[in-house]
Specification:
By secondary structure, the protein is mostly helical. It has two helices and no strands.
């Protein structure tokens, strides 16, 4: 009987940990969905295109300077 209780408690702890991890992933995905929903609206598409150009293509406006911070090694 004692073995069964200990075994069940270990399973509960394991499932509880897994549940917390899945809840964190769910929250991250929901936040990402909110951002994507924002950018799919027609009035925000130009902002999305600009963000992609800046983040992925390293573009900038002609009057801007881009600084890169290089961490010390």
């Amino acid at each position: 009987m004692a073995y069964s209780l200990v075994s069940d408690q270990i399973k509960i702890n394991s499932l509880s940990t897994k549940s917390e991890e899945l809840n964190l992933k769910l929250k991250e995905i929901q936040e990402e969905n909110e951002v994507l929903d924002y950018y799919t609206k027609p009035e925000n598409q130009n902002e999305y295109i600009e963000q992609i150009a800046r983040d992925r293509l390293d573009y900038a406006h002609p009057d801007e300077r881009v600084y890169y911070i290089v961490p010390n090694e």
